[in-house]
Recover the amino acids of this structure.
């Protein structure tokens, strides 16, 4: 809905630009297809952009040099949940207990492995699809499960209604270690009562973002970015989580260089651009 609304709004208010939204299997596929000139603009996320541009992680030795950032929008929230009656109250208490790191092959699983490995959390890993993991929590075969999503995430609402959950919370020094080691993460808080009677949890999240092939003309990208910010309230009607997004968040949390057209817009509105966010072709 978010992408379709962006396409409709930009196309309506920018006569020079016509965007068609198409469904895909996810941000990693989008980034790979964009590198092959199969897509012009794509939805991605901070972690994917960080690794793709640098040729590390899941893009090891295969850097995508034409990857350029347009804007960051809403963050996702990493949920690490356990059944309340499991007795587990901290990450350290997961040691040796069956725990699902998120759906097999998904972004949440990748995040869990990075964070748990860095911080030394050692559950016994239970690999499963998200729906199967949820059933395993419900019937007590595992203590908990994970997912990286927006708020509230339906699967946690469902499980919580059947078997109350607890959200595990990171300590501030742990958040600092994670965000310093992996700059694509940001500190996030899941507020109290996001899930009925569940206290707030400090976690990490990722900005979703929109990226473009650097070969897309600067004037086209400028028009798209300008229209996105100018008509953000209209776009937010389809995806309310972006309603309070600010251009400054893109500049402060850029995990790939800006497209030259986007760079022009952000400079035009008076933002100071860090050197690492300026693309090679604009330096």
């Amino acid at each position: 809905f978010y992408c379709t609304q962006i396409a409709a709004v930009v196309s309506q208010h920018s006569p020079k630009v016509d965007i068609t939204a198409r469904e895909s299997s996810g941000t990693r596929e989008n980034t790979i297809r964009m590198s092959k000139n199969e897509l012009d603009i794509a939805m991605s996320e901070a972690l994917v952009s960080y690794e793709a541009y640098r040729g590390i992680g899941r893009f090891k030795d295969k850097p995508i040099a034409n990857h350029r950032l347009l804007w960051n929008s809403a963050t996702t929230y990493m949920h690490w949940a356990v059944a309340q009656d499991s007795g587990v109250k901290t990450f350290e208490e997961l040691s040796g207990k069956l725990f699902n790191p998120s759906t097999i092959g998904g972004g949440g699983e990748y995040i869990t492995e990075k964070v748990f490995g860095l911080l030394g959390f050692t559950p016994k890993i239970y690999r499963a699809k998200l729906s199967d993991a949820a059933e395993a929590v419900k019937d007590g075969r595992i203590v908990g499960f994970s997912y990286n999503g927006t708020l509230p995430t339906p699967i946690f609402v469902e499980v919580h209604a059947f078997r109350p959950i607890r959200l595990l919370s990171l300590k501030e020094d742990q958040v600092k270690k994670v965000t310093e080691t992996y700059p694509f993460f940001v500190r996030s808080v899941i507020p109290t009562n996001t899930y009925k009677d569940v206290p707030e949890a400090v976690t990490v999240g990722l900005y979703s973002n929109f990226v473009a092939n650097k070969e897309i003309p600067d004037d086209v990208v400028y028009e798209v970015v300008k229209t996105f910010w100018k008509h953000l309230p209209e776009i937010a009607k389809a995806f309310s989580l972006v309603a309070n997004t600010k251009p400054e968040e893109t500049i402060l949390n850029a995990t790939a260089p800006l497209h030259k057209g986007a760079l022009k817009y952000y400079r035009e509105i008076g933002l100071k651009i860090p050197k690492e966010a300026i693309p090679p072709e604009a330096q």
Remarks:
- The first helix runs from residue 2 to 13.
- The beta strands are 41-45, 67-75, 77-83, 98-99, 124-125, 144-149, 165-167, 186-190, 201-205, 207-213.
- The chain is about 35% helix and 20% strand.
